Every structure is written in C-alpha cells, then in structure tokens.
Amino acid sequence: MYHEPQAQSLLQRRIYGTVGLTLLVGFYLLTGLIGHDLWRGDDARYFGPVYSMLQGEGWLFPQLGGEPFLEYPPLYYWCAALLASITGGAFTPHGGARLASAIFTALTVYWVARSAERLYGRPTRTPAALLIFASLGLVLHSHETQPLLALMAMVALVFNGISHIPERPLAGSLQAGLGCALAMLAGGIPGMLFTAPLFAVTIIISPECHNSRASGGLLAGLTLAVCIGGVWPLLLHLQQPELFAVWRHNQWNQIAGQNLNIGDFIRLIKLLSWFLWPLWPLALWSLWHERRRLFQLCWLLPLLSIAFSLILLVFSSRQSQPEVLPLLPAMALLAAGGISKLRRGAANAFDWFSAMTFGVFAVLVWIAWTAQIFAWPPGLARHIARVAPAFTLTDVLPKTLLAVNISLLWFLLAWWLPRHRLARGATSWAMGMTMLWCLAVTLLMPWFDHGRSYGPMGEAFNKAYTPYAGECVASDKLPDPIRSMLDYYASLRPVPTRNGFTSCRLLLIYADHRVEKPGEIEGWEQAWTFQRGGRKQFEALYLYTRLDHG
User: Fold this and answer.
1) C-alpha 184: how far from its chain's center?
2) Is the CB of residue 380 less than 8 Å from the CB of residue 368?
C-alpha cells in the first residue's frame, strides 16, 4: 500500500542524493561563467595566452600580446584554447575558454570525493564533494580564467591515485605519477615539488603501504612522473633554449622568493582563514580527534599536502588568493573525514550557522539591489554612484522575479533538509554558497560587470584606434590585463618605449588609482581618453598623437 511519508522520503533521497548533487554542481559551475565580458585582473590576464593560441601562437610556450608569458606552463591554456575552438559557434572565445575552469573544478570535486570514499568510507564521499563548493575562496576563481584550477585538479588526481595504493599499488602509483606529471604542466616546478615529494613521503611513512608491491609501484609512478613531466621542458629546451633558461630562472625565483615578514605573515593568515572557511575548523577537529592515528594514510596524506603547500607559500614570492587553491583538496578531505565524528550539538551548530550566515548575506545582496533601484539605503547608494557613476540597471522585473525564486527555493530546500542526514552541515553550506552566488549573479552581475568588464573599454579603444589602424602605438609598463584586452578587442600590441622615447606616432598611457593622471606632454596632443569607476575601481586609458606628424 502506498504511503505518503514513504513517497516523501523517496523524494528527499532523490533531491538530496546523486541527482540533486549533480544539479547543484551544475548550477554552481555554470551560473555566471559565460554571460559576461573579460573581467579586469586574472580573467583578462590569463585569457591573453589562450587568445594567442587561438591565433596560432604560443602553443609550446604561452605568450601574451606576442611576448613570452612566464607565470604558468601551458596545460590550462591548451584546454581553454581547445574548448574555445570547439564552442566557437555558441560562445565568445573568452566565454568558451572559461569552460576549462568549470571542467577542472568538476574534476577536483570528483577525485576528492572518490579519494574520501576509499580513505574514510562511502558515507564521506558526498560531504567531501559538497565541502569543496562550501569554500568561500573558490567561488569567484572558479568562474574566471584561472590556471591554478588545473593545479588544484592535479593535486586531487594525485590524492585519488595514492588512495588506491593499499589495494592496487601499481595502478594507484601510476595514477599518482600521472598527476605529478600533469601538475608540472599546470604549475611548473612548484607544482612538481608540491606533488612528487608528497607522493613519495606518504608511501614511505604510511604503515598501509609498507610492502614490496607498493615500493615497486612508487618507483614506477615516479618514473612515469619524470618521463611525462619532463617532455615539455625538454621540448622547450630543444626548440627555444634561451626561453627555457629564462623560464627556469623565473621558476626558481618563485620558489626561493623573499621570506615573509611579520606583516606579510599576518596577511597570509587572514587570507587562509577566510579563503578556506568553513573547511579549516572541521579539519582541525579531525586532526584533534584522530591525533593518535595521524600516521595512517587517510590522515597523513592531506596533512602532508597542507604542510608542503604552506612551506611553498611561505617561501614563494607570491602569496595571492589563487595560490591557496591547491590547498582545497587536502582541506576538503580532512574536513570530510571528521564531519561524521562531530558531536550532535556541534553538527547542529554547524548547520545552524550556515543557515544564518547565508541568510544574512542574502539580505545584504537584496539591500545592495535596493540601493541600485530605490537609492536606499542612501549611504550605500552614494557609494555605488561614486564607484560606478555611469551605471544604469536594465531588465529589472525578470531578474527580480528570478532572484525571488532563487531565495524561496533555497529557503524551502534548507527547511526540508533531512535532520538525520550525515552530510546535513556540508549540504547546507554548499546549498547556501550556490544560492548566494546565483542570487549575486542575478541581482548584482550588471553592476559588478560594469565595474570589472573590459568589454566597453576595449570596444571604445577599438573605435578610437580605427582611423589609425595599422600604425605603431608606443606604451610603457602596461599591466598584463590591459595588454590582453588590447590584443583581443583591437588586435593591438603596443611597442615599449626606450628610455621614454619612441618613434611611433601614437602613445598610449594607462592610469588607475595608484598612478597619477597624465597631464600635458610636450610634443604630444591628447586625442582620446576613456575613464571609468571611482576610487580604487578607477581606470583610464589616454591616447596621444605626436604633434610633428600633423
């Protein structure tokens, strides 16, 4: 006989099971990924090498605006350029390239979930996947062009391989070795130094791997890592030895950068504390609860990964937000391993805090929307006007209705979430983060895009440059995102000045809130200018023509 409670339970299992998780991942990754122009910062900077590949340049070594781009090897750029080519009929090149970010993030979630299942048991598989999305630091970077997402995914692949070793030593070691090789292609020498020692040290120390088959697998995996990971540097050395020398020098400078002073160390702690929230409290609880078993593979693997990553961060010359991304797989594993051991009160508090946090942030998003529509509250409305003085909101009604539905759906799903569910806290955080991102994209993306998009600036410059098409343009110390934007929108690659002098007829100057606006320049006449934003969001381009050329 059919009973409504049984039907309700079946529906809940489907909504909060595999089907619901797949939809949640899809909404999280695809919302806000395609429908916007190039953003200032990393999105434009790292699209530059992708666009060069689409133009047939820099396939062996990434280029930006015709010049070598030393930051990361080409794995991410290869995937992004391939996806942009495949989806060229449906998406813009920069939109298609961002699909690589979604794919690498999805691979990270899959491999972390599988690793958690083998290390801690099947009940932890879903929490591990959900906790990746719960991270505050991932949401923006997973929706922009970001090469370090590829390194994050390769770290997760190494975890997945190592988790196989107790039962399948050779297959697991080969998979981990492949992950180390691809980490080299994703993050360069730091990527290899981060993953290969992790692979070796974990197998040597862990009691579960003390057998001859694991030792043989370790040797085979490291051999595979060296052979495959060394192919690209070898080809670069054979084809372009001077560029290889410059790249190698740059890599070692990144690793052996200046040590952190007290102020840098404090800023790094602050960055880690919010970027990895809410994973790090759960991870600390896991380590404390299992403090007598830390040499077991399930705890040793993520713990060593965190230790190696922090060492590289401390000694690296870069401590930016994206550099923390490779920490996420290890933090998610530790958090997933300890979430089932939370006391009922702590688990309920974790769930309650999630609901309150995202409820408050959702209200703040709505308040920011009212400041755009109704100029209330007045202080926030004035701030928005100062930051984006030329902004106007369009399509208000459909976006408002969609935002209301998003808010109501989150409220209903959070209210109906089964109380006995092991992954209740992780599910609550993942749903809240997805709701908040979708709500922000729906209500605030036009304003956010207005302040960060390079589309209007690129199109305005292209129009201004059309009368001078093909002529030499000189510039000095243009930021990488601006160089990428000019190459993409105007097919322009400015020539650097030499000691302040140039033979070009045109001169392009960039200014932001840190650079004083240029005034009159002797021998030059300002022909065009483009300014946008206010305060720290201010950016401007100034195009000058040489007077002695008429």
Assistant:
1) 18
2) yes
- Could you give the CA distance from residue 259 to residue 382 in angstroms, rounded to a whole number? 41
Neighbours of 130 (CB within 10 A): 28
pLDDT digits (tens, 9 = 90+) for 161-196: 999 998 899 999 999 999 999 999 999 999 998 899
Query: pLDDT tens-digit profile of 473-491?
Result: 999 889 999 999 999 999 9
Closest CA to 28 of 414, 358, 433, 364: 433
Helix (H) or strand (E) holding 543: strand 539-546
Of 198, 212, 204, the residue nearest 161 (C-alpha)? 198
Task: Tell me the whole-structure pTM to 2 decimals.
Answer: 0.94
CA dihedral 297, 298, 301, 306 (to 10 degrees): -150
pLDDT digits (tens, 9 = 90+) for 359-387: 999 999 999 999 888 888 888 888 877 77
What letter would DSSP give residue 321? G
Determine the Cα–Cα distance for residues 24 and 351; give it in Å rounded to an integer. Answer: 18
Instruction: Indicate left, alpha or beta for 58 from its phi (over 0: left) and psi (-120 to 50: alpha).
Output: left
DSSP string, 503-527: --SEEEEEEETTSPPP---TTEEEE
Residue (of 305, 327, 79, 284) closest to 200 by Cα position: 305
Average pLDDT of span 214-219 = 84
H or E element in which residue 546 lies: strand 539-546
Q: Using DSSP bridges, classify how beta strands 524-532 and 539-546 pair: parallel, antiparallel or unpaired.
A: antiparallel
pLDDT greater than 80 at residue 400: yes
- Quick one: which of 546, 530, 445 has its CA closest to 489? 530
Residue 86 to residues 82, 203, 349, 443: CA-CA distances in angstroms? 6, 40, 46, 31
Contact 214, 165 (CB under 8 A): yes
- Over 60: is that where the pLDDT of 205 sits? yes
